[in-house]
Amino acid sequence: MSGLALIATLGFGGLVLYGIALGIRGAMTPSPAYMQGVGPTSRSKGGAVAAPAAAAPKSVYEQIGGEAAVNAAVNIFYKKVLADDHISRFFEGVDMDKQAAKQKAFLTMVMGGPNNYSGKDMREGHKHLVKMGLDDSHFDRVVQLLGETLLELHVPASLIGQIAAVAESTRNDVLNRNPKEDPQMSTVYDQIGGEAAVNAAVDIFYKKVLADDHISRFFEGVDMDRQAAKQKAFLTMVMGGPNNYTGKDMREGHRHLVKMGLDDSHFDRVVQLLGETLTQLKVPAALIGQIAAVAESTRNDVLDR
Q1: Which of 137, 208, 220, 135 is nearest to 175 (CA)?
Q2: How much is the average pLDDT of 213-234?
Q3: Which CATH number fits domain 7-27+57-185: 3.40.1550.10, 1.10.490.10, 1.20.1250.20, 3.40.30.10?
């Protein structure tokens, strides 16, 4: 996965929690920002009158308690990390105030909150740490400390389990294992063919979208060149490629579309067109299945429920 956090420059915790929003919605797999090429979150308050949705938050960011919870988690987590003899050495010389601020912005974004984050991809960001000896034992310890932090904050066990699974899915990128030497260690970005494949997929997908009578109206007046560029950057990041994406969170980005009538039928059609696009590009069925599952997991956020 890459577009995640960095253990030292973005924080050990980021490697795991990046997955929360990208991973809980399908870490290492594209989290499709369907309608407006927005980022890793969505909205969940249908239309102008949204009292029911407000009472039932959908994003992980909301579920764990929003800004206060993220701040508390990062602060507690780093205290544990710096006190741990096995991993503290990776933070020697790091400005921890700056580090914590970056981590909070990053985790807020990937868990579905406001996107104020910019940073390196995970593989690149951890490279120097691997040279310092970062290995599976350090990765395991970070996951353990993160779990302890979340338990301390009374995060539900079901969410902690999801986060742990996402953490595991980032192991190969964090430890800089070479996907060319072992294809099973490659990111989704690598597996589908990298930049050329992402570019082709986005271009084909939007041609289908704009030609579709059921959903094309949502793109009236949109600068499609700019839209496609944003979408390519976003998909590249969430599939494990370089992180050059900046944009709104998904919730905010779809708000005006829900007010225009965006509903399940439009969501279904977008997923269908995405599947057709990937099939046309000969993406393996297994990967298409992963992407479809991630798409489905974003339904309530996209439709602002």
Answers
A1: 135
A2: 89
A3: 1.10.490.10
